[in-house]
């Protein structure tokens, strides 16, 4: 297993040579890309690895890459290398037309990249910057057309500016489009440039779009009809700390150390109270915990919600409830290395096996800054 210092040597200087063989050795999963076909209408160059190599070459030879800082080049290069890492496992072929698609490959690719870079001890900020670019790498192609959810282009660039660096995203998207053979390349490249221009107009090209306050920002990103520059009145509600992280990452210890006086809503506590093992009657466990949370929310009492909240979908269930009761939310995300997690889990009294814990990483999505009034990332 290569480590961060080894991976850094893969990153070429501007205009330098990409060592394709070394890239494959660093991330063996990419060998699957060599045998993964793509739709010829969008990828006349052929398989996923051929496309990936072309993208890396286009990126390294670009003016933007030459102007980027060394840390930004690391992020960009790794994002280009891994942007289609999950296409091999998302490929579907239409039985009638024979058309090839890879639905969901960006989101699944971000998860797969997160696991690989975590195991390589890539620094958290660098890793998450790479994963966020991978998850969003196609958005500049179509951002000015709005989203399927009905969100405006302005909303999309404002939100993205809080989650990643838009200039880096635009550079990756441009390299992705130039590193392929397709008939509509120029149209998409024009869209990417318009995406850049919109971000500049919104004052969020290379920095988060300013908001008058955190409550207005959270409400806006959750769909409220508000303007970033005008404050939305915040009704009184509970102040809730939402814990987040893989099992054995130190959430219980952190809560006991920093907030020993606060009530805690916990699925683990609910299981103990109900005499259940991990994985048994999870619906009843969730119902028990949610009932306790609702009681505290009705009283507008502060509390801690201590659970893994590992995926966006899992967090949304909790956050939807909290925001419905006008809570002010502080997400605290904790993380440790695989070795530390498995060691801790093996030593503690739990029905969660290490095998079950490792399987949970396939749903692992670190929280985004747009999800709460405050998000803290703590490495332990």
* CATH structural architecture of the largest domain: Orthogonal Bundle
In DSSP terms (H or I, runs of 4 or more residues), the helix count works out at: 18
Oligomer: single chain
- Name of the CATH class of the largest domain: Mainly Alpha
Q: Write down the secondary-structure element order.
A: HHHHHEEHHHHHHHEHEHHEHEHHE
Total beta strands: 7
Give the N-terminus to C-terminus distance in angstroms: 22 Å
General form: globular
Q: Biggest sheet, strands in spatial order? A: 4-5-3-6-7
Largest sheet: 5 strands, parallel
Q: Helix/strand/pairing class, anyone?
A: alpha/beta
What's the overall average pLDDT, rounded? 93
Taking pLDDT < 50 over at least 5 consecutive residues as the criterion, the unreliable ranges are none
Q: Helical amount among residues, as a percent range?
A: 40-55%
What does the model show?
The chain is of the alpha/beta class and 380 residues long. It folds into two domains: 4-201, Hypothetical protein af1432 (Orthogonal Bundle), CATH 1.10.3210; 239-379, Rossmann fold (3-Layer(aba) Sandwich). It has helices at 4-8, 20-26, 48-60, 63-67, 70-82, 105-119, 124-136, 139-142, 153-163, 166-178, 185-201, 214-221, 251-258, 267-274, 282-298, 312-324, 338-347, 354-360, and strands at 92-93, 100-101, 239-244, 264-266, 303-306, 328-335, 374-379. The strands form two sheets. Strands 4-5-3-6-7 form a five-stranded parallel beta sheet, with helices on both faces. Strands 1-2 form a two-stranded antiparallel ribbon. A hairpin with a 6-residue loop joins strand 1 (92-93) and strand 2 (100-101). It starts with a helix and ends with a strand.
């Amino acid at each position: 297993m290569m480590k961060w210092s080894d991976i850094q040597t893969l990153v070429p200087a501007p205009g330098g040579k990409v060592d394709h063989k070394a890239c494959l050795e660093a991330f063996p999963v990419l060998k699957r890309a060599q045998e993964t076909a793509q739709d010829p209408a969008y990828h006349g160059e052929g398989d996923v690895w051929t496309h990936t190599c072309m993208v890396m070459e286009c990126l390294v030879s670009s003016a933007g890459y030459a102007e980027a800082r060394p840390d930004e080049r690391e992020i960009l290069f790794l994002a280009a290398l891994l942007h289609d890492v999950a296409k091999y496992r998302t490929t579907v072929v239409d039985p009638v037309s024979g058309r090839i698609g890879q639905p969901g490959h960006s989101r699944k690719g971000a998860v797969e990249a997160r696991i690989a870079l975590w195991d390589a001890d890539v620094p958290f900020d660098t890793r998450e910057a790479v994963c966020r670019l991978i998850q969003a790498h196609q958005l500049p192609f179509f951002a000015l057309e709005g989203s399927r959810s009905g969100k405006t282009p302005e909303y999309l660039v404002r939100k993205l500016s809080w989650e990643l660096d838009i200039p880096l995203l635009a550079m990756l998207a441009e390299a992705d489009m130039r590193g392929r053979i397709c008939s509509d390349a120029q149209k998409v490249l024009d869209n990417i440039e318009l995406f850049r221009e919109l971000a500049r107009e919104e004052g969020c090209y290379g920095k988060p779009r300013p908001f008058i306050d955190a409550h207005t920002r959270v409400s806006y990103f959750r769909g409220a009809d508000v303007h970033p520059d005008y404050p939305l009145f915040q009704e009184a509600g509970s102040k809730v700390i939402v814990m987040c992280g893989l099992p054995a990452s130190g959430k219980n210890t952190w809560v006991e150390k920093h907030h020993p006086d606060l009530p805690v809503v916990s699925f683990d506590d609910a299981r103990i109270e109900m005499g259940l093992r991990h994985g048994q009657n999870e619906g009843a466990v969730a119902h028990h915990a949610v009932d306790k949370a609702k009681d505290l929310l009705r009283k507008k009492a502060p509390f801690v919600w201590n659970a893994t909240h590992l995926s966006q979908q899992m967090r949304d269930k909790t956050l939807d409830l909290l925001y419905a009761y006008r809570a002010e939310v502080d997400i605290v995300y904790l993380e440790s290395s695989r070795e530390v997690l498995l060691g801790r889990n093996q030593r503690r009294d739990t029905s969660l096996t290490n095998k079950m814990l490792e399987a949970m990483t396939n749903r692992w999505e670190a929280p985004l800054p747009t999800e709460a009034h405050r998000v803290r990332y703590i490495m332990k």
